[in-house]
Structures are given as C-alpha cells and as structure tokens.
Write a structure and sequence with these properties.
- By secondary structure, the chain is of the alpha/beta class.
- It has 3 domains: 185 residues, P-loop containing nucleotide triphosphate hydrolases (Rossmann fold), CATH 3.40.50.300; 84 residues; 85 residues, Orthogonal Bundle (Arc Repressor Mutant, subunit A).
- The protein is built from 18 helices and 9 strands.
- A 6-stranded mixed beta sheet has the order 1-3-4-5-2-6, sandwiched between helices. A 3-stranded antiparallel beta sheet has the order 7-9-8.
- Helix 8 links the parallel strand 4 and strand 5.
- Helix 5 crosses helix 7, helix 11 runs parallel beside helix 13 and helix 16 crosses helix 17.
- The longest helix is centred in the last third of the chain and has 17 residues.
- It is globular and about 65 Å long.
- 34% of the residues are buried.
C-alpha cells in the first residue's frame, strides 16, 4: 500500500481477472448479490446498462452519498459482474483516502499497467511516467474505479491520465461530496436511504441468513430497524447484534432499549447506533476489534499477519491445559475474526480459495469508534 491509495486488483486481460473476493460459483454470486443489493438494484441495472451500451466516448459515472450508504458495496457488484468484466480488457480498482497524493496514484497505475519495472531505478520525469500510462491505456478498453474521492481537486489532477480513446472505456467514482460529480461532469447516481420495507428486508437477510423473523418478534424488530433511519451500515450492524442473541422477546427488548438510549444521547447521528455492535461483543472479541484501530483508513489487512499480531499481543488465549484436541491459537484467532465478520463489524476484502478470509478491512465509520 502507498499512503493515500491502495490498489485492490488489476487485470491485463479477461483471463487474468480475479474477483474482489476470489472465484465463486454463479449460485453463490447470486446469493451475495441478493443480500447486499437491497434498495440498489435499479442503480445497478442502470449503470451496467450504461457500460454495455457505450462503445465510443469515455464514460465517467459517479455514485454520491453519505458514509455507510453502501456505495462501495454497489460499485464492487458492478465491477465484479461477469457481463461487465467481459466488456473491458483492463481493469483497476483504486481506493483513494483523505491523504491524497497524485504522484502515488500515478505509481499505482504504472504498476497496474506492468510498467513499473521498466521505470525502476531510472531517472524518468513525472511527465514521462504519465505519458507511459496514457499510451498503455490508449490501446485498451479500460475500466477504472476511483473509490472514495473526497475533493474535486483529485479529479483535476488525475483526469489527464485517462485518455478518451473512443473505445467505450469507463471510470467509476464514489464520493461523499456532490461537488466531485459536478466537477467531473459525470452521470451521477445518488443511492437513497432505504425505505421501511427495504430496511426490514435487509435486516432479516442479515439477522436470519435469509430466513424469516418469528412473528412474535417482528414488531420489535421493525421498530429497531426504523431507528436506523435507512442507513444500510447501521442496519447490518444491528442485525449482527441481534443474530447472535436468543430469539426471545425479553432479549430483543433489551437490545431495543439500548438502541433508544444511544439515539437519545445524540439523536442527530445515526452512526451512534453502530456502537451497540461493539458493546454487545464479549470481552475476548472487544480487544481484538479495538486492535483494528492501529490500521489506517481503507487499508486491506492481511489476515495471516493480523492473526500473528493478535497472538503476539496476547489477545488470543490458549485453552486450559488438559483439554483433549485443543485448538491451535491460530485456529482460535480465525474463529474470532469470523465472529467479527458475522457481526458485520469487519468487512471481507478478499477470500482464499478454501473460502477463508485472506484480507479484511473495517468501515471508516466503525474505525471512528
């Protein structure tokens, strides 16, 4: 990772493309799509249609909205869609942080284009480096994602790197700043907050793994979900709390009182509800979750290294002696991480071929906790 940017995945041709979460069957892709795309299907269809139908001019598309709304989730679904992947011979995903430096984005593109080795150790000017990237992209039908641009000035500095090569290339942008969309002159989409029914649908999918909520708990569940005010991140965090509790009225009422208490403390900030996800953790998971605070925003965390650090810091305790077939510390760490993922407090960035988590990250709203 370079300060300010991180390259997620790039491909030189369709055969080399690897999805953001590894190879998956179509059936599993459909399942994940249905769970994560509540309220966003229309935008997904419109953007993919726009990408398919454009065969000439450079297509710049922006998704604009507040943090926790699901912009990155939506853009990943578009980026990883099989039909979209077939349209482009070169794809690159770049996460942009607040600490933006144009020279670092240039270095990432050089690497993604396979040009970094040709410039290594050579005194090549920045203008020459830009020219190399431009010439490479000029011959490709390319798809570039610039995720989480904070200021319009970012686009002003990097726009020159992306030639309009009359091949139907595209750039997808996510931002919380509407000024970014205005400055780029792009086609803009504004993912809305979820309505009452969409919020309930998302909650049930996450809390009950696609099952139905017991009728005796539905009124309480709907009331809790309503308090999240349509923010997907708040809803899935709440669902992560509820999903680990017994399906009893008294248990759900206790969670409901906690939700109301958090909102009463600061009714203007729905993300306050996110702290409920942390407070509901057992102590063994709280310390592991807090450890994520050492990582910078948007950083893809290598899980193997993370587990080693947890163990070295003493956050993973060995089982009592005398237990037959006691699990290894690394297996316990893996279990802890999976619990945090199940509770929607940690996001999967990439999976191993066996389905385990290879790298993960934490949403910046949760990082603020």
């Amino acid at each position: 990772m370079l300060d300010g940017f991180k390259i997620e995945k790039y491909c030189i041709n369709e055969g080399e493309f690897e999805g953001m979460q590894g190879a998956r069957s179509n059936q599993k892709q459909d399942k994940v799509f249905e769970e994560d795309m509540v309220g966003f299907v229309d935008i997904f269809n419109n953007v993919t249609k726009q990408l398919k139908e454009n065969e000439t001019n450079l297509n710049v598309i922006s998704l604009i909205g507040m943090g926790g709304l699901g912009k990155t989730t939506l853009i990943k679904k578009i980026y990883n869609n099989n039909e979209v992947k077939k349209l482009f011979s070169y794809s690159v995903w770049i996460t942009v942080s607040k600490d933006y430096k144009a020279t670092e984005l240039l270095q990432i593109l050089l690497k993604g284009c396979g040009l970094s080795e040709s410039t290594k150790g050579k005194d090549i000017s920045e203008d020459d480096q830009k020219s190399k990237v431009q010439k490479f992209l000029e011959k490709k039908k390319y798809l570039i994602v610039l995720d989480d641009i904070w200021e319009p000035e970012v686009w002003a500095e990097v726009e020159c790197l992306f030639p309009d090569n009359n091949k139907g290339s595209a750039i997808l942008i996510t931002s919380r700043n509407d000024g970014v969309a205005n400055y780029t002159g792009s086609k803009s989409y504004y993912p809305p907050l979820l309505d009452e029914d969409e919020s309930w649908k998302l909650f049930c999918k996450k809390a009950f793994k696609g099952g139905e909520c017991p009728s005796v708990l539905e009124s309480i569940g709907r009331l809790m979900t309503e308090k999240c005010r349509g923010l997907p991140l708040a809803i899935i965090t709440l669902a992560g709390v509820v999903g680990k509790k017994k399906r009893l009225t008294v248990e759900w009422m206790r969670i409901m009182r906690s939700v109301i208490w958090y909102l009463a403390k600061d009714n203007s900030k729905v993300p306050k509800v996110l702290k409920l996800g942390y407070d509901s953790l057992p102590q063994r998971l709280k310390t592991c979750f807090l450890y994520f605070g050492i990582y910078p925003e948007d950083y893809a965390i290598p899980v193997k290294r993370l587990k080693q650090l947890w163990i070295a810091e003493g956050l993973i305790q060995a089982p009592k002696t005398g237990i037959l077939d006691a699990p290894e510390l690394e297996d316990i760490a893996e279990e802890y991480l999976n619990e945090l993922v199940d509770r929607s407090l940690v996001l999967v960035a990439k999976r191993r071929s066996d389905g385990g988590v290879k790298s993960c990250r934490i949403h910046d709203l949760l990082l603020d906790l």
